[in-house]
Design brief:
With about 250 residues, this protein is mostly beta strands. The chain contains one helix and 16 strands. The protein has a single domain, classed as Sandwich (Jelly Rolls). Helices cover about 10% and strands about 45% of the residues.
Length: about 250
Amino acid sequence: MKFRYTRRIFRPNFSKLSFKVFLLLMLLFWFFSFNLWSAEIFKDSFTEGKAQLQWMFFPHYFLDNLEAVKDPTAPEGDRGIGILTNSKVGGFAALSYAITPEVSDFYLEAMVYCPVSEGDKGPLVGLAFLIDPIEGRFYRFVCDFNKKSPSLNLAYVGKDTRHFPVYLKFWKETDISNQFPKESGWQKMGLRVKKGKAIFYWNDRKLEGVLDVSRIKKGLVGIYTNFVGGLGKAEAKVDYFLLEILK
C-alpha cells in the first residue's frame, strides 16, 4: 500500500466579523503608535554645564544670551543649569530663546529659580513664549516676588508697545492659597497654548483663567528676565526646559 504525502498550507480561518475586528485592532495600533512616535519634544537639562539645545539672544534687546554652566545644586541633579543675565547693559530686559520650530499649539515647562526681593524693587524671571524675533514681540509669564505686591503675571511685550508690558493677568498670593515662597528658590512653571488660548501652571497647579494670546499666531519659546523699579542686575536660572509640540 502506498501513502501519498500531501502538504498542507495553514490558512487562518477568519470569519467576516473576526477579520473586521482584527483590522480595527491593527488600525488602532497604527494610530496610537503614529501619534506616539510623531510627538515632537525638545528638552534642555544643561547636563554638566552643556546645553542640549541651541540658544539665541532676542535681537531687539541687547546681546545677552543664555549660557549653560556647571552647578552641583541643579534641581535635576545633573550638575548643570542655564543662566541668563542682563549684564550687557545692566537694568534692562534680557530674553533668550531656544532654536526649535515655531509653534502655535504647545506645552512648555521649566524649573525656574524665582528670586524673592527684600524691598519693592528687584528682578523678575520666567518663561517667554510665542516669541517673534522678526516683529520684535512676545508674551512672558513671570514670577515677580517683590515685598510690596508679589505676583505671578502675564504680559504682552512688543515694538508696538515700545517694549513696555501690557499686563493681561495678575495672580496674587490669595489666588493660590498663600503658596508664594518666602525665600528665593527653584519653582516649576508651565503653560499650555491651544488655538490662541493659554492656561498656566505653578508647581503643577493649574492657575485660574484661560487667557487670550492670539495676538501672535506662532513663535518660539525661551527665558526672560528684567529688573523692575530702576536699574539693577537681573539673573534668570533655569533647568529642565521642556517644549512639547501638540498635535
